[in-house]
Amino acid sequence: MTAPGRRSSTFTRLLRHGFTHPSAAERLLESPELAPIRNDPVLLEALGATADPDLTLDGLVKLVEAQPDPTAQRELLDTVIAAKPLRDRLLGVLGASAALADHLARHPGDWQALAMYEPRDLHPEVEEFEHGLAGATDPVSLRVAYRRCLLSIAARDVCGTTDLAQTAAELADLATATLRAALAIARAAAPEDASQCRLAVIAMGKCGGHELNYVSDVDVIFVGETADGADEAKALRSATKLASHMMRICSETTVEGSIWPVDANLRPEGRNGPLVRTLSSHLAYYRRWAKTWEFQALLKARPVAGDIDLGEEYIAALEPMVWKAAERDNFVADVQKMRRRVVETIPVSEVDRQLKLGPGGLRDVEFAVQLLQLVHGRDDASLRSGTTLDALQALAAGGYVGRADAAQLDTAYRFLRSMEHRIQLYRLRRTHLVPEDEADLRRIGRSLGLRVDPVAELNREWRRHSSVVRRLHEKLFYRPLLDAVAQLAPGEARLSAGAARERLIALGYADPAAALRHLEALASGVTRKAAIQRTLLPVLLGWFADSADPDAGLLNFRKVSDALGKTPWYLRLLRDEGAAAENLARVLSAGRLAPDLLMRAPEAVALLGDGDGGTGLEPRSRAHLEQEILAAVGRADGGVQAVTAARGVRRRELFRTAAADIVDSYGTETKPAEADQGALVDRVGGAVSDLTAATLSGTLRAVVREGWGDTLPTRFAIIGMGRFGGHELGYGSDADVLFVHEPQDGVDEHEAAAAANRVVSEMRRLLQVPSADPPLLIDADLRPEGKSGPLVRTLNSYAAYYRRWSLVWESQALLRAEPVAGDTELAGRFIELIDPLRYPAEGLGDDAVREIRRLKARMESERLPRGSDPKLHSKLGPGGLSDVEWTVQLLQLQHGWAEPGLRTTRTREALAAACAAGLIPAEEAAILDEAWVLATRVRNAVMLVRGRAGDTFPSDARELAAVGRYLGYEPGHVGDMLDAYRRTARRARGVVEELFYGG
Questions:
Q1: Distance between CA atoms of 570 and 744, rounded to whole angstroms?
Q2: What is the pLDDT of residues 860-886, one digit of tens each?
Q3: What per-residue confidence (pLDDT) applies to 999?
Q4: Per-residue pLDDT, 486
Q5: Is the pLDDT of residue 84 over 80?
Q6: What element of type H or E holds 219?
Q7: Is the pTM for the entire model greater than 0.85?
Q8: Of 301, 334, 361, 412, which has the fewest beta carbons less than 10 angstroms from its beta carbon?
Q9: Distance CA 787, CA 510 (A)
Q10: C-alpha–C-alpha distance, residues 86 and 92, integer Å
């Protein structure tokens, strides 16, 4: 007897053998059922060798208790002690699966299925499993027989007799036998239906690929034909009844539970399509309507039950289409989009525990392998395997994947699938989530051979293998391209020139020969630069492929690399700062403007990094910009050098703004695209307008200092007009301005006017001098009398003109007037002068309103470019910028005197103020705002993509696709983009007709 407070020797031995609840285990060992073997040392050693000794002992006691009589109990216990193969199998299953332990307790004779140990039991195939299910005549007996067969598979698995691939193949073979048995039961229940039709069951997914899980949906497609000249419609009805019954036999819950769901949703049209189709109907669908992912799914198609000849006909007819799928437009983009969509559907709380669908999970390996199979399987039949690991091995053997990468992925995939198997085996439930409970993690870890610290070791190994998958799954597609051109590993199989060309075409490269030349130039050699670029390029190529113009992205990267490749900080930036490489890839492949700005001063690539707290692409304030430009002007030697310095800052900041706009519009792997389109527009408009104002300030300072020293003979101010005054400049906008001056005390008016005109002339000249920096065009056509009037006026001259000659369109133009540079006091008095004109007391008269409407109608008919589609013209077309702005400006002219919120130069602010004042319903204001934002985004996109301003969508297909990507449309969806623009503009035009033209 054990003394009070002291632990028994049994308790201590149990702890040493891995029991976590030794007190409970000690009580179980004392149960009368185990009396004959309680003290046998073999028992404790055997229990301690299992994944969960506590679970094993509990299951063994229940199994012994369930035996029908003492003789049966003694036979079981004697066999457990004397027969090591049975002992390992039985206890191994009991320690890994509570569900199978429950099955054994319900069917206590089934342990005998583990007692046999003949050679044929080591690797059973479909025939052996069919024999095991032969006695099943109804859904309940089929479940019992299925579990009995599953026992033997699980036993071989947990004992290490079979590896992961063999276990998955056995599970698929058992599923095949089960589908055949279920179909036989369904046929027996409806012999008349069975006689009317031929029905083939095509396995898809993991069952079709011969790599099934313990618990998984079994994906199928049904093909039906008539039998013995029966009517086709009647035959299809009969086939559908049989197929439905077969699915229910497997899926429905009975007293013995269910087997697994049979899922037919991969069929043409999914749930909305007929369950059974004829072969000709399948072919018609796949020829005309099927999407890329549907051909990808057919990689694993395999006839498994029913009319096998019909199934083989189905496979033979569809196989040529499968291997041509890579020729479809946007093939790679479609497959990658499908993968991203899967990740996006995972609940945030589950992402980090997802073995299958999460980043670095099983699906990453499977998608990468399938992508490569579809690209290269057209010409290489050795790649046409539905089994992931076999296909990966074939890809490595053919040089389509690096051998080292393939080996790492194979190891990682086997580990992750083994984890998945152990998780599902415990309760025989369909799940891909790693449990959080420590006891569960301990059992899984021990079952995988991790015995020192199972939980910590399991987590470490899981994260390590997941990290390998995450790192390699995309590079798998791109790294062999570099190996093909760099040739640094003699003797290893590598991509042929033809295979490399195929892969680049699949990625969207229009000129694969040029792309290969660029890769060779970037990746060849043994320099540090080449080594780092070989590391970076697999990832960069993926980002380039995600753009509308991968060729341009790769070419531009080569140019930047040639310019900066010997600069240590450049390579360090791309290698070490996570955001820099992706940001650079996005910027270089999104169009012409940003790369052109970067090529003129490649050192601006430093803005793309994470430095300074990740603020490299944040727009700088106007005050900050002015301070830098004025400081540069002050240091310069002469006016030309000073303005050159100011233009250099402008070029750099334009690049910063464009790069930020592209990155925010595309999104990155760590940050989704900006959802608020209005915020993107405001950010660009504000940044470019502030930059233009700062550049004008610096240029004005330079010109004055060069010609007059510190003091100009006249006070001088620049007033921003149009989009400039409204803080809404785009990348290609001119700077609309008015110039106002006032002679200094004692200075002759003619001398002052001459000085002011000379300042304007010199500013315009210096800002347009041909150089590496983009010109800044100053447009003063909105001045009094337009091009016929003097370029510069005194404040008194403006007052006299506006008092006597001002027209209504000039009042409208002045709504956007805002000081941007020069003498602030003079500019303030100019604003005081024009406020009564742009916000007339009591609003506009009827004649003025009619005149504005007449001018707008004339502009619509006369200024729209000939040959352009009015519905797609972002500025002058129906529902475009002009429509929205004139509507808002009419409200400002009519109500600005009474509503202070309308006294703003900014369109969106004025529209919001009009809504707040009740001048326009909220719904209509939202429609106008959406249209204005979209039209502005289109203009920005055109400038970014083409490198020159434009108001209409490009006609070139690649440029149009690039505009679509900027606006958030996936490849292949430019039609949706144009339809959305027309729809948005049409709705806005309806509001304009009512508000501006009076209904």
A1: 52
A2: 877 777 778 889 999 999 999 999 999
A3: 57
A4: 63
A5: yes
A6: strand 218-226
A7: no
A8: 334
A9: 47
A10: 9
Tokens 């899926």 locate to 251
* CA-wise closest residue to 246 among 173, 175, 184, 308: 184
Residue (of 390, 372, 382, 473) closest to 210 by Cα position: 390
CB 147 within 8 Å of CB 185:
no
Q: Are 945 and 960 in contact (CB under 8 A)?
A: no
Q: CA neighbours within 13 Å on the CB side: how many for 83?
A: 16
Nearest to 852 by CA among 897, 890, 892: 890
Report how far residue 764's alpha carbon sits from residue 776's, in angstroms, rounded to the nearest whole number: 8
Cα–Cα distance between 462 and 444 in angstroms, integer? 11
Largest CA distance in the chain: 128
Please give the structure tokens belonging to residue 605: 């690539």
CA distance 895 to 911: 12
Buried b (16+ CB within 10 A) or exposed e, 916-926: eeebbeeebbe
Q: CA dihedral defined by 368, 371, 376, 381, rounded to 10 degrees?
A: 90
Dihedral sign for Cα atoms in the order 355, 359, 363, 368:
negative
What Cα–Cα distance (Å) separates residue 679 from each residue in 420, 880, 926, 930, 938? Answer: 44, 19, 14, 12, 15
CA nearest neighbour of 147 among 104, 109, 181, 84: 104
Amino acid at 960: L
Question: What is the per-residue DSSP string for 97-143?
Answer: -HHHHHHHHHSGGGGGGGT---GGGTS--HHHHHHHHTT--SHHHHH
Residue 561: other Cβ atoms inside 10 A:
22
Of 527, 579, 591, residue with least CA distance to 553: 591
- Strands, E assignment, 790-835: 792-794, 818-822
CB 170 within 8 A of CB 197: no
DSSP 689-702: HHHHHHHHHHHHHH
- Cα–Cα dist 294/267, whole Å: 9
Residue with tokens 């309308």: 902
- What is the rounded distance in angstroms from the CA atom of residue 986 to the CA atom of residue 303? 52
Q: Are 249 and 178 in contact (CB under 8 A)?
A: no
d(CA 538, CA 475): 5
Q: What's the pLDDT band for 475 if we cut at 50, 70, 90?
A: confident
The span from the CA of 822 to the CA of 835, in Å, is 20
Length of the chain: 999
Chain segment 346-394, per-residue pLDDT in tens? 888 888 899 998 888 999 999 889 988 998 898 899 999 999 999 999 9
Residues 6+ apart with CB under 8 A from 40: 81
Listed in sequence order, the residues at least 6 apart from 310 whose beta carbon sits closer than 8 Å to its beta carbon are 198, 199, 200, 223, 225, 279, 303
Number of other CB atoms surrounding residue 736 within 10 Å:
24
Predicted confidence band at 117 (pLDDT cuts at 50, 70, 90)? Answer: low
Per the listing, tokens 């709380």 go with 349
- Residue 519's identity, in one-letter code, is L
All residues at 6 or more sequence positions from 142 whose CB lies less than 8 Å from its CB, including other chains: 133, 136, 178, 181, 182, 185, 249, 259
Distance (Å, rounded) from C-alpha 820 to C-alpha 598? 27
Closest Cα partner for 549 from 958, 956, 974? 958
Q: What is the mean pLDDT of the chain?
A: 91
Please work out, in degrees rounded to the nearest 5, the angle formed at the alpha carbon of residue 872 by the alpha carbons of 869 and 878. Answer: 95
Nearest CA to 393 out of 410, 417, 418 is that of 410
Distance CA 258, CA 236 (A): 27
Q: Is the pLDDT of residue 8 over 70?
A: no
Give the count of alpha carbons within 13 A of 406, CB side only: 22
Ramachandran quadrant class, 3 (left: phi over 0; alpha: psi -120 to 50; beta: rest):
beta
